[in-house]
Amino acid sequence: MDLAKSLISQHQSAQKTTYTDIGKTFLGDKIMNISLENIICNPKNREINLEKVQEYKASIRELGLIEDPVVMEVDDRYMLLSGHHRIAACRLLAEEDPKYQIVRCKVVEKDDLDAELVLIHSNMKNNPLTSYEKMMAIGREEELLKLKEEKGTLRNVIAKNMGLKASQVQTNLTVYKKAIPELKEALKEEVVTLEMARNIAVLPIDEQLVKLTNLKRTKKAKTKTTEDIFLTDLKRNITRKLGTKTKITSNYIQISYNGVDDLNRILEILNLLEEST
């Protein structure tokens, strides 16, 4: 019987056991079976993707939990460092079948700085990040490495940790450290790309807002929604057919006319005149 089946058998036959020490890995980290009630989410983790949780739920039901969540002991409980979506899926499964109440986890001994680094690397590896989220993660990693007094060129260390080019890391760090809050918010809302944000961030602070405002104004002027295009075409067609000025918004149509005769002409075109008896 392989280890995964053995663990399931243990879960079914020993429900009273809160957790079981399986042994030590070659790195010294413990592999343990831990009850879900003793696993707490990391408050610094990003928001859970419910669609991804459902995908994990289906996968775990079919194949089991392939990769162990990573936790650290905090006041007799275990805080997640990696595997928030997997644990969320296990919680859903446990509502249907108690065997999922016990989860095999890797327990690591980390200080707060290392714990946050593990969380950052887990999100970079396992979750699709937006440009804003990646920029914030890279900037925060540099801060943590400075606190740890990491040796060497930090952008190179970060690049190695995250599987990125040093130039990519530098671009993100430039935005993280130099961009004004409004520019970071524009990146978050995907009004600007990372490269655009970087080009603005290298400007003096008082020029960044001006550049961003002009960029938004230009972008807005160039952008037409589907509704705008529809209303413009509709106005053109009605004006051509009626031969008069027309104003159209999403709420009303305004047709101009000159006197009663012109109004009757327009109503006749629209087939709105009643035939006289």
Describe the structure.
It is a single chain. The protein is an alpha/beta fold. 56% of the residues lie in helices and 13% in strands. It has 12 helices and 8 strands. It has helices at 3-13, 50-63, 84-96, 112-126, 131-147, 154-162, 166-178, 181-188, 194-201, 205-222, 226-242, 259-269; strands at residues 19-24, 30-35, 39-40, 70-74, 77-82, 102-107, 246-248, 253-255. The strands form 2 sheets. The chain has a 6-stranded mixed sheet. The protein is elongated, with a radius of gyration of 30 Å. The protein starts with a helix and ends in an 8-residue tail after the last helix. Residues 1-27 have low confidence and may be disordered.
The gyration radius over C-alpha positions equals 30 Å
Secondary structure category: alpha/beta
Shape: elongated
Q: Spatial order of the strands in the main sheet? A: 1-2-6-4-5-3
Extended strand count: 8
Task: List the helices and strands in order.
Answer: HEEEHEEHEHHHHHHHHEEH
Low-pLDDT residue intervals, each spanning 5 or more residues: 1-27
Instruction: Determine the mean pLDDT.
Output: 83
Ends: how far apart?
Answer: 96 Å
Task: Describe the sheet with the most strands.
Answer: 6 strands, mixed
Give the percentage of residues in beta strands.
5-15%
Helix coverage percent of residues?
55-70%
Q: What is the number of helices? A: 12
